[in-house]
Design a protein that fits this description.
By secondary structure, this protein is α+β, with helices and mostly antiparallel strands. The chain contains 2 helices and 3 strands. Helices cover 56% and strands 23% of the residues.
């Protein structure tokens, strides 16, 4: 077998490994981005004077932020949603907030 052919065969496993690692990196990157978005939303909520004292959790999956917890009024819920929408990377914001007067 010519030396050029054996070199190509040796490169195939390396190429395959690089493709697999790149795919894994993309999946990890998306997960890290979701965690980052959740953290940024939580910080934004805590820093907002109107909703900072409320118990609101934020979870993100594929860029969609879901807010959960309790608020006293619908206005507080609306404000929390508006604050979450200002965070970069948040594609959509969904509310599972419960109004408890």
């Amino acid at each position: 077998m010519p030396p050029a052919c054996s070199g190509r065969r040796a490169a195939l496993p390396l190429l395959f490994a690089l493709v697999v690692l790149a795919a894994c990196g993309a999946a990890t990157s998306a997960t890290a981005d979701d965690a980052t978005i959740s953290t940024r939303v939580k910080i934004a909520l805590l820093n907002d004077p109107q909703v900072g004292a409320l118990r609101i959790d934020a979870k993100t999956f594929q860029g969609t932020v879901t807010l959960s917890g309790t608020v006293r009024t619908q206005a507080e819920a609306d404000r929390a949603i508006a604050v979450a929408r200002t965070v970069g990377g948040a594609r959509d914001v969904r509310s599972e907030l419960t109004v408890v007067p």
